[in-house]
Amino acid sequence: MTPEALKRVAAVLRTAHRVAVLTGAGISAESGLRTFRGGTGATAADLPADMQALWKEFDPMRLATPEAFDADPAMVSRWYDWRRLGCLAAEPNAGHRALARLERELASRSGQLTILTQNVDRLHQKAGSRVVVELHGTILEWRCTMSGRRTTPSPEPMPAYPMPSPFHPRGVLRPDVVWFGEMLPEAALKAAAEAVEACEVFMSIGTSAVVYPAAGYIAAAAARGAMTVEVNPEATPISSAVDVSIRAKAGEALPRLVAGAFDSSGLA
Ligand code: OAD
Fold first, then answer.
1. Which of 159, 205, 215, 229 has the most neighbouring CB atoms within 10 Å?
2. What is the tens place of the pLDDT at every residue in 64-100?
3. 89, 91, 69, 90: which is closest to 80 by C-alpha?
4. Could you give the CA distance from residue 253 to residue 173 in angstroms, rounded to a whole number?
5. Catalytic residue check, 136
6. Which atom of ligand 1 is nearest to the CA of 209?
7. Pocket of ligand 1 contains residue 80 by CB under 6 Å
8. How confident is the model at residue 263 (pLDDT cuts 50, 70, 90)?
9. pLDDT at 204 over 80
10. What torsion, rounded to 10 degrees, do the Cα atoms 206, 209, 215, 220 define?
């Protein structure tokens, strides 16, 4: 993480009004939640002992499909419930908190930060961010397979897998997340497109930037003339395309970036 790269972005943030960020699993890695791919990716060893025996072929990607749920609703809902409890227990880290501060700083001069997140853990909201577009839904809410009605399960393990729906005699509950092959929520897509269209700075933080449409936002923002920034300790397919690539952990880079933009001492 070169101080020059941070200074360059901090200088633009200091006067910007509209900023959009796209976040992925990497921003929650420092809160103890596993990413999907790469060095901090989930493995079978993360699972509780009794689940490890069940899932020798553990692959979080293969469980994230409607077909997997149809084939084995008990196993898939149990896995998601285990993840739900992990998200509930997790606390936001310095990266989440820095973005919450950035939102407040921009709002104080009638600007806006929009967080487009692929994460289902609600840690941005727990850190105090208010404008959060959940592109992949949230694991903290579940919905009835028959009626589509949503509910927030209590913070204990569910009593049954799959959990019978309280709304429909033939329904069960499934996590209110987007699975591979499913449509992203229309309202979220619209809000994301508006944020990308209007932003002066677009930052891609902690995402491998391979899942569309999220991955396309950075190109769209660049085409509109926004400054594009990536925060990721590893190189990704977009690293060479952004204006500024900050090779660092979000929990280290974002507090420095926001302090550099808004604290009187700035970046040393
Ligand atoms: P990935 O697991 O694909 O990528 C995580 C990224 O975070 C990697 O590029 C890491 O280098 C980076 N990373 C790790 N630690 C970091 C840290 N402390 N600070 C910053 N970056 C860090 O996760 P996503 O890009 O979020 O979709 O994956 C996108 C989607 O694919 C997920 O939402 C999920 C998955 O399949 C669905 O479930 C629909």
1. 229
2. 899 999 998 998 999 899 999 999 999 999 999 999 9
3. 69
4. 39
5. yes
6. 25
7. no
8. very high
9. yes
10. 70
| Residue 255 DSSP SS3 | helix
Give burial (CB, 10 Å; 0-12/13-18/19+) of 240: exposed
Question: pTM value?
Answer: 0.93
pLDDT of 53 above 80? no
With a 6 A CB cut-off, is 37 part of the ligand 1 pocket? yes
CA angle 215, 216, 222 (to 5 degrees): 115
CA distance 225 to 148: 40
For 205-236, give one letter per residue: b (16+ CB within 10 A) or e. bbbbbebeebbebbebbbeeebbbbbbbbeeb
Q: In terms of DSSP H, where are the helices of 201-247?
A: 214-223
Burial class of residue 175 in the structure, from the number of CB atoms within 10 Å of its CB (0-12 exposed, 13-18 middle, 19+ buried): buried
Domains (range + CATH), the chain? 3-31+91-136+183-262 (3.40.50.1220)
Q: Separation of 118 CA from ligand 1 center, angstroms?
A: 8
Structural contact between residues 109 and 17, judged by C-beta atoms closer than 8 angstroms? yes
Q: What distance in angstroms lies between residue 253's CA and the mean position of ligand 1's atoms?
A: 17
Residue 20: strand pairing partners: 114, 202
Ligand 1 atom 14, closest CA? 26
Catalytic-role residue among 17, 96, 124, 136: 136
Residue type, 111: G
Nearest CA to ligand 1 atom 26: 24
